[in-house]
Design goal:
By secondary structure, the chain is α+β, with helices and mostly antiparallel strands. It is built from 16 helices and 29 strands. α9 runs parallel beside α15, α12 runs parallel beside α13 and α14 packs across α15. The longest helix has 20 residues. This is CO/xanthine dehydrogenase Mo-binding subunit.
């Protein structure tokens, strides 16, 4: 790990002055001459055939310039990978809120009035909302035409059942797995469930689209401009080199801004009218139709010897994919983090089957650490339940089975030693073995988060010996991308950071970038910057160097199982046995995160991640009744605020260097992973109530405490 670089100096955010003075221009802040306003009609039923759409009255509203349906634009389908979602529904709707018609008008009020006047006749169809029933032989087929769906790149493999969006199977074969389970003295099986959750960003989705001759220009909230450009080209048939995406400021993301809906509607409205078209979603639209975290059911099975050694593990993970798979970014069309149920441990034989299925709910998408949150909640709860059954201390059971631990006479690896320190520092920080009063208990969770794959590059120019410019096509969704690039460039070249200017350029002028997400930004763009700065330093040091001097550098980060950071979270909770209310008293997050490039941003990511995980653990849920999302505003969708947050202590553990520049590791999707299982484990030790479904609500605890009578409570797990 490098220590002789100026990264310990707190950073000054390069975009900070623009943001705190209100001069930063987000997508909705842009207004173009002649701009029209878009509004869309969403379906009021969850599953139905469209019999008739009458737009006559809407077209008569003063100021309306275009009213479009699928009859006007065709059956145009889009997606991040799977192109299965229509821009406007043609023959049927598959979830409540799906777009059926679009209007462009001189004012937003006129557009919304026109939408209210569109008359749609539906023939309702059977609604499928239970993902467990989706792949049964008699389940209604939601996409009869699914065989014709294509990926943005390449053809789609035919699924085993027409209601399967995607599937990923990894690990040991059937015979190897059966033999491993055969060596176990005990086999434990538990099932866990997690709900839909919204990303909770403050800025809703928005877009502006206009044409300049045959060039389509897009200002967007999408955090992956190059990906959006490619997806729009694949869907619309417009040449990719004739689409230019602009992106600089994004008002929050947390995984939700990689998927776009507005840009496609605006594309067709702008083409129809010849004028710029702007769309800004309402929170009702955003909460009900923009790809929340998948609701998930996970069944885990683990074989264990008498002394507590894990010998086999399998996981069946079922994701409620909702009506379309368009929001998922990988070709397997499942959140890959679902394989991380036991990734912090050494298990000789593991097998994971991840399946995403179609239902008549809003399409499932990505949210901070997609799949990992569900998997680690299940896996770390499962480990504690095994420890309770075996009568082993949960920390000691984890220490016995650490990834990279001693096997067949070998010494533990350096990785195992780091994980052990992470676990012990968290447990010691919460006073794991301390005596506690009734109703109080402690819990711990251990986990790994892999660094993301991706591709990205920068162009670096020396305009003079003391003026450096870095060109990037990356969006900054609030994580500090611009500041990170400047700090790496300055440190590498040995110059003051004030001499580095980072310029964000549209897709037509910058090198390709995979986009913010998957914990890849520092790993990819930071390393590209380091390499470019190294080469630029060499060039400007040559005798007779003529300015400007320019270097272009691209980095491709492959999938790497060893590029993970390990974390442990320990919490103490208090459970009110009269009401079931859970109060987190304090928390300790121990993190192995490599070299820290931006200290304030690093701590902010860990603290913010913890609060994010706290909301997901205790309160956040998008309930669905009859296909309708029951939260229409962020006032209805409970997010944690300052009074909900307990004291949090962060402990850094010096581990192996990461694969980012100067040994940096990713933390963007790190702080939230262990929160839910640590709290669930602490609640079990405090009250005896083992909750296997999120959120961990007071109502659920109260109901369990009262199941056997008002004066009777279940026994607490050992150590409470």
């Amino acid at each position: 790990m490098t220590t002789n670089l100026p990264f310990a100096i707190p950073e000054v955010r390069h975009e900070g002055p623009l943001k705190v003075t209100g001069h930063a221009r987000y997508t909705a802040d842009h207004a173009l001459p002649g701009q029209l306003h878009a509004a869309c009609l969403g379906s009021g039923v969850a599953h139905a055939r469209i019999v008739r759409i009458d737009t006559t009255a809407a077209e008569q509203v003063p100021g309306v310039r275009a009213v479009l349906t699928a009859a006007d634009i065709g059956d145009v389908r889009y997606g991040r990978q799977l192109r299965d979602m229509p821009v406007l529904a043609s023959d049927r709707v598959r979830f409540m809120g799906q777009r059926v018609a679009a209007v462009a008008a001189d004012t937003r009020q006129a557009a919304e009035e026109a939408v209210r006047l569109i008359d749609v006749e539906y023939e309702e169809l059977p609604t499928l909302l239970d993902p467990r029933l989706a792949t049964t032989p008699d389940a209604p087929v939601l996409h009869p035409e699914a065989e014709a769906y294509r990926l943005v790149q390449g053809a789609r493999h035919a699924p085993a059942h027409p209601n399967i969006q995607g599937e990923l199977v990894v690990g040991a074969g059937a015979e190897e797995l059966a033999a491993a389970f055969g060596r176990a003295d005990h086999v434990f099986e538990h099932t866990f469930r997690t709900p839909r959750q919204h990303q909770g960003y403050i800025e809703p989705h928005a877009a502006i689209v206009w044409f300049d001759d045959d060039v389509c220009h897009v200002i967007s909230t999408n955090k992956a401009p190059f990906g959006l450009r490619q997806q729009m080209a694949a869907a619309t048939g417009h040449p990719v080199d004739k689409i230019v995406v602009y992106n600089k400021f994004i008002g929050g993301d947390f995984g939700g801004k990689g998927f776009s809906l507005d840009e496609y509607v605006c594309f067709y409205l702008a083409r129809e009218t010849g004028r710029p078209v702007r769309s800004i979603m309402s929170y009702l639209e955003d909460l009900s139709s923009t790809a929340p975290r998948h609701a998930t059911e996970l069944t885990l099975r683990t074989g264990v010897t008498r002394d507590g050694t894990f010998v086999a593990h399998s996981a069946e993970v079922l994701f409620d994919g909702g009506a379309y798979g368009a929001a998922k970014a990988n070709a397997h069309l499942v959140p890959h983090g679902g394989v991380d149920t036991m990734s912090a441990y050494s298990v000789p034989a593991t097998h994971h089957r991840l399946t995403a299925v179609y239902t008549n709910a809003a399409p499932g998408g990505h949210m901070r650490a997609p799949g990992d949150v569900q998997a680690i909640f299940a896996g770390e709860s499962h480990v504690d339940m095994i420890a309770s059954e075996l009568g082993i201390d949960p920390v000691e059971l984890r220490r016995k089975n650490l990834a990279g631990g001693k096997t067949e006479g070998q010494d533990p690896s350096e990785t195992a030693a780091v994980i052990d320190q992470v676990l012990l520092r968290a447990a010691d920080g919460i006073d794991w073995s301390g005596v506690r009063s009734p109703g109080r208990g402690v819990g711990v969770a251990l986990y790994r988060r892999k660094g993301g794959t991706g591709r990205g590059g920068v162009v670096m120019r020396a305009l003079s010996p003391d003026r450096i410019q870095v060109i990037t096509g990356a969006a900054d969704q609030g994580g500090g991308t611009v500041t990170m690039i400047a700090r790496v460039a300055a440190a590498t070249m040995g110059i003051p950071e004030r001499q580095v200017e980072v310029v964000q350029q549209p897709t037509a002028e910058a090198l390709f970038d995979s986009g913010a997400g998957a914990s890849r930004v520092t790993r990819v763009l930071g390393e590209a910057t380091r390499l470019a700065a190294t080469e630029l330093s060499r060039l400007i040091a040559e005798p007779g160097a003529v300015f400007p001097v320019e270097v272009a550098q691209e980095v491709v980060a492959p999938a790497d199982e060893d590029c993970g950071a390990y974390g442990a979270l320990a919490v103490e909770v208090e459970v009110d046995e009269e009401t079931g209310q859970i109060r987190v008293v304090e928390a300790v997050l121990a993190a192995d995160t490599g070299t820290v490039i931006s200290p304030l941003a690093h701590r902010g990511q860990l603290e913010g991640g913890f609060v994010y995980g706290l909301g997901g653990a205790l309160m956040e849920e998008l309930p669905v009744e009859g296909g309708q999302i029951m939260c229409g505003t962020l006032g209805d969708y409970k997010l944690p605020t300052s009074p909900d947050v307990p004291p949090l202590r962060i402990v850094s553990v010096a581990g192996e260097s990461g694969t980012g520049p100067y040994g940096a590791k990713a933390v963007g999707e790190f702080g939230n992973l262990g929160v839910a299982p640590a709290i669930a484990n602490a609640v079990a030790r405090a009250s005896g109530v083992r909750l296997q479904q999120l959120p961990l609500s007071a109502e659920a605890v109260h109901a369990r405490l009262r199941q056997t009578g008002p004066e009777s409570a279940p026994p607490r797990e050992p150590g409470g």
